[in-house]
């Protein structure tokens, strides 16, 4: 196939005195380097998700705001950060459409949480206050091209292949929420030493990979992290032959 088209939902962000439909440069650059064509999708009109889904070959769900807890049947707790229900609705619709149409997905940070919610799972609204034990520092005070905590990678996983068979990988961390109960069609493929969920995949072993860290801020200096994007583009090509 020609270069696969990768849809990336764009958050509405206030920059200066105007709202912009915004995607981080890291995701755009990583998709291009891996051989994909990034297409940015505004997220103010959830009803357009079907139209957007029709023109993309794969879906990259990026990092961003918290997911509004009403999408997993909870009320907001005090430590919940900024949420945007239009963004949530759009990304949940895009995820469900991509799964129904067998279009591969890569979830990053918030994106991994969105796909878990879209498929019937739920989240910790705030790890530190909701965890029943001492957690690690998951909102790191270090440059984002550096890993800070380890992720233990499951043996039978795409992620283990991506990492060349390594079982313990240093990842960066910039999140205060995480997956609580996994959606039925997902399996756990990496966890931190405090048991925080760090990666998931679809049980079919092909359609979905989601990581809780940010490979898009590491891929330029870390080949292992770039391999996540190479694997994504390869899965998209396999799904569209
Ligand atoms: Mn983490």
Can you walk me through this structure?
- This protein has helices at 25-33, 49-55, 85-100, 110-118, 127-130, 158-162, 223-239, and strands spanning 5-15, 18-22, 37-42, 58-61, 105-108, 123-124, 149-153, 168-171, 178-179, 186-191, 197-202, 208-211.
- By secondary structure, the protein is α/β, with parallel strands linked by helices.
- Strands 1, 2, 3, 4, 5, 7, 8, 10, 11 and 12 form a ten-stranded mixed sheet that branches.
- Helix 3 packs across helix 4 (110-118).
- The protein is globular.
- Bound molecules: manganese (II) ion.
- Manganese (II) ion (MN) binds at residues 138, 149, 173, 175, 192, 196, 198, 212.
State the helicity in percent bands: 25-40%
Summed up, the helix count is 7
User: Which ligands does the model contain, each kind named once?
Assistant: manganese (II) ion
Distance between the termini: 7 Å
Give the structure's gist in a few sentences.
By secondary structure, the protein is an alpha/beta fold. The chain contains 7 helices and 12 strands.
What's the helix and strand layout?
Blueprint: E1 5-15, E2 18-22, H1 25-33, E3 37-42, H2 49-55, E4 58-61, H3 85-100, E5 105-108, H4 110-118, E6 123-124, H5 127-130, E7 149-153, H6 158-162, E8 168-171, E9 178-179, E10 186-191, E11 197-202, E12 208-211, H7 223-239
Parallel strand pairs: 1-3, 1-4, 4-5, 5-12
Antiparallel strand pairs: 1-2, 6-9, 7-8, 7-10, 10-11, 11-12
Helix pairs in contact: 2-3, 3-4
The protein binds manganese (II) ion (MN).
């Amino acid at each position: 196939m020609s270069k696969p088209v990768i849809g990336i939902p764009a958050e509405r962000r206030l920059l200066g005195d105007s709202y912009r439909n915004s995607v981080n440069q890291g995701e755009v650059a990583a998709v291009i380097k891996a051989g994909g064509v990034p297409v940015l999708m505004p997220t103010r009109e959830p009803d357009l998700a079907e139209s957007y889904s029709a023109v993309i070959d794969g879906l990259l769900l990026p990092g961003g705001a918290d997911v509004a807890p009403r999408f997993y049947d909870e009320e907001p707790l005090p430590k919940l950060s900024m949420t945007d229900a239009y963004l949530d609705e759009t990304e949940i619709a895009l995820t469900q459409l991509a799964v129904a149409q067998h279009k591969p997905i890569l979830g990053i940070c918030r994106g991994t949480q969105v796909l878990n919610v879209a498929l019937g799972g739920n989240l910790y609204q705030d790890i530190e206050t909701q965890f029943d034990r001492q957690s690690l520092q998951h909102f790191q005070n270090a440059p984002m091209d550096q890993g800070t905590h380890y992720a233990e990678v499951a043996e039978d996983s795409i992620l283990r292949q991506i990492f060349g068979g390594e079982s313990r990988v240093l990842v960066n961390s910039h999140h205060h929420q995480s997956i609580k109960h996994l959606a039925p069609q997902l399996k756990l493929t990496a966890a931190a030493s405090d048991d925080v969920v760090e990666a998931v995949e679809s049980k079919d072993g092909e359609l979905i990979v989601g990581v809780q860290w940010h490979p898009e801020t590491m891929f330029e200096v870390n080949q292992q992290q770039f391999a996540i994007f190479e694997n994504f583009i390869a899965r998209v090509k396999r799904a569209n032959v």
